[in-house]
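Hi F.,

I've been meaning to write this up properly since the lab meeting, where we talked about keeping a consistent format for the predictions we share between groups. The idea is simple: the sequence comes first, exactly as it goes in, then the structure tokens exactly as they come out, then a line or two of notes. No screenshots and no reformatting. I'm using this chain as the first example so we have something concrete to point to.
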Amino acid sequence: MVIARLVVKPLILLVLIAQLAVAGEGIFFKRHSLHKVDDVNNVYLVSAQIDFQLTQYLEKALLNGVTLKTRIFIGLGEHRRWWWNKTDYLSSINYRLKYHALSRHYLLTRADTNENWNYRSLSTALHYMGRVVNYKLPRLSENTQDGNHYLFMGVKLTPSTLRLPLKIQSLFGDDYGMRSGVISWPLR
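Output, unedited:
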């Protein structure tokens, strides 16, 4: 019993400290909601606040001229009994973030609408990039109300240019890109 206390408690403490150190980096959903706005046409609005905490590698790459691409994807899933769930992507919101060294501004561009914004601080640019406010989804078919379907949302952030060795490393490590967890809403 004494050995268990002397070995297990410090080991648990080390694991908790390591998790706290890593918890600062990543993509996290602070808030998210789904609202049905049209019962007849089966149309929904999605809202979310996404928190981006870049790794040191990505921050350094951004300051050295690498563009960061962000894809916020929204999809429709169907639960299946015997095989993996069926998923279809409905929509995505794509951003490009780059740093302009001469003006010391962060340039944020939304790819689907070609809107551009300039920010003095990286935190402000990341905060705006993480705002999804009343994003209208395409009309869903009537059979999605059967209780087996759900909507899901996730985020992927990657540098726009990775050389071949880094592309291979990015498949196995999180330093060169980041993904969020996927959130979902059941449809009824």
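Notes:
The chain has a mean pLDDT of 84.
The first helix runs from residue 2 to 22.

If this format works for you, I'll send the rest the same way.

G.
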